[in-house]
Q: What sequence folds into this?
């Protein structure tokens, strides 16, 4: 009996010793791989050198954690790269009109303008460049406020037809300068929505500016009622937008590969979407046969509906 117990004890010791040996071997193997991962950027996956206990399950879990970390780091690098490109782009967008204005200013100071007619031309160009800078900064400020939740919308019942007509009239000179006349359509009866008048005006302004900057004809702007909804539509022919751009067209700082205009921060349509959604509406875009269309949709309300604040 004693010999049997000794034999069983000896077997247990051997079994435990073997398992401890394999555990140590597995741990040393993992430590060597982790040391490599600590000092080198590599996609190496942790591996097992022997099957022992739940170490393989642990290794699979560690690999899943590393995969998620790699994905997060890749996303972070992409965002950092995007922000760097954005900052460079915005710096260029602001510097370009400032450099131009500085050049005209220097010519004026040196008396190079000569005649009064030329002086007034240079002054007009300087003013236009300053307006471009102010518009760029205004877009940045507007987006920063709505992104931070600091933009407050005071919503009430407004006549969308009237607001649309008043806003688009402000751009008559821009369309004359572009050498085109847009098609403008509004309904014959008042169309009411619950929204912030200033916010909706900004949406319409951004839609028109986006069309002027990126479009090359066939401009059409309309407001109409569709199935109980008020729809603002801006459409234009374009050669700077492709079908693949549509899913990202409302992203902040997004500019297409074919569109490299110094007048664009890539925030105009992002602001349109942010403002619309903040007031309970939505925005959508489409490209069909070279015609780029943006629609902003609000719920239409009856004339007698009382005013309220935006949710």
A:
């Amino acid at each position: 009996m004693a010999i049997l117990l000794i034999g069983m004890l000896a077997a247990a010791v051997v079994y435990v010793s073997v398992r401890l040996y394999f555990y140590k071997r597995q741990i040393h193997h993992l430590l060597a791989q982790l040391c490599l991962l600590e000092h080198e950027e590599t996609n190496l996956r942790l591996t097992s050198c022997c099957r022992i206990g739940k170490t393989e399950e642990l290794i699979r879990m560690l690999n899943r954690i590393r995969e998620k970390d790699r994905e997060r780091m890749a996303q972070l690098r992409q965002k950092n790269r995007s922000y760097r490109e954005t900052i460079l782009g915005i710096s260029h967008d602001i510097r370009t009109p400032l450099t131009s204005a500085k050049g005209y200013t220097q010519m004026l100071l040196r008396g190079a303008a000569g005649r009064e007619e030329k002086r007034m031309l240079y002054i007009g160009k300087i003013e236009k460049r300053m307006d471009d800078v102010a518009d760029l900064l205004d877009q940045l400020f507007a987006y920063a406020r709505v992104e931070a939740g600091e933009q407050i919308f005071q919503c009430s019942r407004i006549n969308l037809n009237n607001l649309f007509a008043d806003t688009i009239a402000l751009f008559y000179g821009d369309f004359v300068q572009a050498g085109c006349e847009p098609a403008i359509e509004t309904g014959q009866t008042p169309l009411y929505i619950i929204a912030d008048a200033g916010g909706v005006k900004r949406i319409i302004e951004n839609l028109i500016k986006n069309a002027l900057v990126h479009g090359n004809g066939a401009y059409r702007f309309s407001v109409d009622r569709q199935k109980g909804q008020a729809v603002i539509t801006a459409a234009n022919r374009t050669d700077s937008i492709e079908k693949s751009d549509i899913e990202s067209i409302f992203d902040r700082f997004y500019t297409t590969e074919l569109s490299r205009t110094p007048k664009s921060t890539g925030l105009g349509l992002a602001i349109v979407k942010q403002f619309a959604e903040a007031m309970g509406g939505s925005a959508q875009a489409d490209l069909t046969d070279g015609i780029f269309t943006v629609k902003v949709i609000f719920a239409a309300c009856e004339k007698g509906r009382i005013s309220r604040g935006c949710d």
